[in-house]
């Protein structure tokens, strides 16, 4: 498997400009809901595949699931307002019972090349796994060890921009594996605090951001399979949980736990934040952010169930944000489709027990994975005619 994937030619996805229409409310396209159990099976993030054909999500206590984009949404610039909501069913499920920390797609994923269709995951007290996106089978593992030769679980995982390396952030180091060589062969880069989040810049090859539990971000440069420190960014109040680079690689957006600010850093002048925007985050849970492929819009979830959108095309603080109240519970995952005006969101969080009744209120549960249309909408003329006739007859 790994030899085939190593030989596969990696090509950056073709950048196409997506037109978003934020003037109208988002139209729900598809949904899947996981039932509630006593052990809280809530969702923990969603990720579009690089080619946009499928969506990966993590469900606490119920593994990982891949849902496919409905076929009628592959093309077309307009969606009818009367389009029914498509019930999603996982095309692939991996019933991992343990706690899953992080997951990410292979950056060169292309559904026409099966060898590239895979994703990484890291979990509690286990190695990093590489999963086949067609079958859900385990392809291979990458095993990091600590000083007493025990498996050192990765808190965060990420591919390099070219897909040739895997970065695994643990409590005391970041381990760098070669993608085509699974096992325990790696290069180690020591860190002062647990590496809770790792992202690689696609525009600036070799530049990697490492976010820690200690509210700091370390920028490093990858060369010859090792890391070299560039600078350290400080400004968040909590541990870093989510980051994304801008399209040109000159900016970095970051968010943290129990921190109501998303910070934009100008990496050309990294001494202080370029600007900050506010969101609702009052939990230790990871609340994701994402950037549109055109680089203009930044989106974020929130513990209040709202999705916030900012126009960050200028190097100034956005004057206002657009808000979409899409969920009744915490919206912890947001992911913009790479080529279509479609937003994927997921909701859910841990609800504490009522100390008096030893039960939880089911009214606030919403463990849902949804797809939303952010493009042009059109009223169905047949539906309008039917409404007029019904009103006339009445």
Automatic annotation (TrEMBL):
It comes from the Eukaryota. The lineage of its organism: Eukaryota, Metazoa, Ecdysozoa, Arthropoda, Hexapoda. Belongs to the TCAB1 family. Keywords: Repeat, WD repeat. WD repeats lie at residues 295-320. PROSITE patterns: WD_REPEATS_1, WD_REPEATS_2. It comes from Cryptolaemus montrouzieri. This is WD repeat-containing protein 79. InterPro entries: SWT21/TCAB1_mRNA_Telomere (IPR051150), WD40/YVTN_repeat-like_dom_sf (IPR015943), WD40_repeat_CS (IPR019775), WD40_repeat_dom_sf (IPR036322), WD40_rpt (IPR001680). Pfam families: WD40. Gene3D superfamilies: YVTN repeat-like/Quinoprotein amine dehydrogenase.
